[in-house]
Amino acid sequence: MKSLTVTKNDEGQRLDRFLQKTFESLPKSMMFKQIRKKNIKVNRKRCTPEQILREGDVIDLYINDDMLREKKVHYDFLKAPKDIDIVFEDDNIILLNKPQGMLCHPDGREYVNTLLSSLKRYLYEKREYSPDSENSFAPALANRIDRNTAGIVIGAKNAAALRLLTAKIKNREVGKYYLTIASGKFEKQQDTLTAYLIKDERKNMVKVLDSACDGAKRIETKYRVLDTAGDFTMLEIELLTGRTHQIRAQLAAIGHPLLGDGKYGKTHGRYRQELCAYKVKFDFVGDSGCLDYLAGREFSLDSCGVQTKFEELKSGR
């Protein structure tokens, strides 16, 4: 028999999802069976897989210990780069300026040198994150940007903040703004581009289509011309939908690939696109729970590499 007490970072989850996160050796079918047989109880009462857990709930599992092997916590994040560039931080969230060339999350080849690992190390060393005291939660990134895109990524320091951020981003209540340098001059000073995007998982590339088809997702990208330098234009991009390689592929599709983009542009063999997520705005609507104080606030970088590169183009360097 094993007992677990639900912590603040565990509450709000369904019972079945919590158990799946906590025990690596408990098959899903066995878990459902044991719930039906009342061998898994919450607060000594019969429970259901979809029951929502609250802080302080006690989960009793009358199951063989061999089936209750808890997931091992790895401390590989302590090998991650220690220095991180913090744009804003409070008890709930942290805004990080990700450098170009760093992954947000592990990708199967690189596990340690990621923004997420650096975030975990930072919070662990501040004693704000202790893997041993958490049942299922770990600090997480609420959004992501490509390896070779720099800029602001939103981190959640607790489960409540993560759930709210995930919902707000899904409902388009978090504005994401980018600076970029595109090839060519634009006829319109501002516009909203709409199209459909389909991904080729094998090639890790996307294709932009004018009309819908099976597997394609609608994309919307708003741009505003800021300045021109020869045959290049600096733009502010507002990402209205967040799809893989959306900005890069959609601008390339209308004949304006990003400077330095070897995947969708003309710079073959170079994958250092001039693109920076320079600003986020919290356009919260309605109840925002523990993040209500962020409603209407925006945060931006004082400067970024895109601006530096554009000044070089203007001066002819």
Molecular structure report:
- The chain is an alpha+beta fold and 317 residues long.
- It is 19% helix and 28% strand.
- It contains 6 helices and 15 strands.
- Strands 5, 6, 7, 8, 9, 10, 11, 12, 13, 14 and 15 form an 11-stranded mixed beta sheet that branches.
- A hairpin with a 3-residue loop joins strand 5 (86-89) and strand 6.
- It is elongated.
- The chain starts with a strand and ends with a helix.
- The mean pLDDT is 92.
Task: Kindly summarize this structure in a few lines.
The chain has helices at residues 15-22, 28-36, 115-125, 159-170, 246-253, 305-315; strands spanning 2-5, 40-42, 45-46, 58-61, 86-89, 93-98, 140-141, 150-156, 174-183, 190-200, 205-209, 217-229, 232-239, 275-282, 298-300.
Give structural attributes.
single chain, 11-stranded mixed β-sheet, 317 residues, 15 strands, alpha+beta
Mean pLDDT: 92
How far apart the termini lie comes to: 71 Å
Q: What about the largest sheet?
A: 11 strands, mixed
Shape: elongated
Helix content bin? 10-25%
Class from secondary-structure proportions: alpha+beta
Radius of gyration: 23 Å
Query: How do the SSEs run, as a string of H and E?
Result: EHHEEEEEHEEHEEEEEHEEH
Secondary structure tally: strands: 15
- Low-pLDDT residue spans: none
Oligomer: single chain
Query: What portion of residues belong to β-strands?
Result: 25-35%
Determine the number of helices (DSSP H or I, runs of at least 4 residues).
6
